[in-house]
Design brief:
22 helices, alpha+beta, 4-stranded mixed β-sheet, 404 residues, 67% helix, single chain
Length: 404
């Protein structure tokens, strides 16, 4: 009898040890607050979610991803975050370049961290990407639980052609935020728009905020309607969009060290029909190539030529070139004086914080205390008006007070 009891005791202890080990293996951070990530496959997590009446949350990461570590060290350990996500989701952490490689073939994520939400039937219902602070991350979880706020809702509306124009715009924006490539889908959608609707406000937001590929076939239609867009949304807005769009395309060749491709792409841009600002776009790309190569002497010469030929009415490019002059030629008073003139011209066109802060900084270097104080104080006023961060100007004001 004693022998049987001892054997039973060993069996019970062994079972408890195995159960304890399984619990530790399937839920990290049990002795801590925060999200408890389980060591399960997606398939196992879906089974668990069905049994627990929850959904599945995946933190998709890569070893090299700084923001993934931020989420792990600063957001996931928070008690409120943990309480919410543990109550509503079976939570997993998956390296999307290793064990999650097959999942990533389906979701095609290239932005990390990527956040994936599945229902208990294994259907992807919501997703996002990039660093999130605590409150936006909690809100993301609430979106995933709300059937009318999930990406799946907008996808189904779009696929069934029942989405309103505002819902279509929001769906494309959600894909952008999630690190997805919606460029071809946008191209197809805009092609189907009638001439009467093509330049409406929803389509303009899609074009201005989300289109990133100037080789899309829809670009020819956009350029053909350029004057109409300018009349509705200002020439400055449409030109700024085109400059940034084509500049990103051209400098991509520089990043890839493809000089031959860069020159060929410039010729392509110059030959683009209805692109009336093509020479400015190409000159701007050449200027940015010098910046990317840290050829500051070359930039100094090309920058002056670019501004005088193309940017005297472009407050963005004026302040950009003036900033580079200040950053790299701060001991050259002649160059600083030139940068000051451009910065003054910029704020005369658009009285913004960045231009006023730069003017204050330049005048500090030129030894003009009164002017530096004037622009610094105005920079603070403008920052408060537009809710800008003006900590740097406050530090500059401290420095100005010590000037003779």
């Amino acid at each position: 009898m004693k022998k049987s009891f001892s054997y039973l005791k060993i069996v019970i202890i062994s079972f408890l040890f195995i159960a304890q080990s399984f619990t530790k293996a399937t839920a990290e951070n049990d002795d801590k607050t925060g999200i408890k990530f389980r060591s399960l496959t997606l398939e196992q997590a879906i089974v668990a979610a069905k049994a627990e009446n929850k959904k599945v949350f995946i933190h998709g990461f890569a070893d090299w991803c700084h923001y993934c570590m931020y989420m792990k060290d600063s957001v996931y350990i928070d008690k409120e975050v943990g309480d919410f996500y543990n109550a509503n989701f079976v939570c997993l952490k998956i390296d999307m370049e290793k064990e999650g490689k097959e999942i990533n073939k389906t979701i095609k994520s290239h932005t990390f961290p990527t956040f994936l939400f599945y229902d208990s039937n294994g259907e992807l219902i919501h997703r996002a990407a990039g660093r999130r602070y605590k409150q936006p991350f909690l809100e993301l979880g609430r979106e995933a639980l709300d059937p009318r706020r999930q990406m799946r809702y907008y996808k189904n509306r779009y696929d069934s052609a029942t989405a309103t124009p505002a819902e279509v715009q929001f769906y494309f924006r959600m894909q952008e935020i999630a690190g997805m490539d919606a460029q071809l889908m946008i191209d197809d959608y805009l092609k189907k728009q009638s001439d009467a609707d093509f330049t409406n406000a929803n389509n303009w937001r899609i074009i201005y905020d989300i289109i990133k590929d100037p080789t899309l076939t829809i670009m020819q239609r956009i350029l053909a309607h350029k004057k109409e867009f300018e009349a509705k949304y200002t020439a400055d807005s449409i030109n700024n969009k085109l400059i940034n769009l084509y500049n990103s395309y051209l400098t991509g060749y520089v990043q890839r060290l493809d000089s031959v491709g860069f020159e060929a792409a410039k010729r392509q841009v110059l030959n683009t029909k209805n692109l009336d600002i093509a020479p400015k776009i190409v000159a701007y790309a050449d200027l940015n190539k010098l910046k990317m190569k840290s050829d500051w002497d070359g930039y100094k010469v090309a920058g002056k030529k670019f501004v005088e030929q193309y940017a005297m009415d472009d407050f963005r490019r004026l302040i950009e070139v003036a900033q580079v002059y200040y950053d790299h030629f701060y001991s050259d008073k002649e160059v600083l004086a030139q940068a000051e003139q451009w910065a003054m011209k910029s704020v005369s066109i658009a009285d913004l914080y960045k231009g006023n802060h730069l003017l204050a900084s330049i005048n500090v270097m030129l030894g003009n205390k009164e002017q530096a104080l004037k622009y610094a104080n105005h920079a603070v006023e403008v920052a408060k008006l537009y809710n800008n961060d003006y900590k740097q100007t406050m530090l500059l004001l401290d420095r100005i007070q010590t000037m003779p």
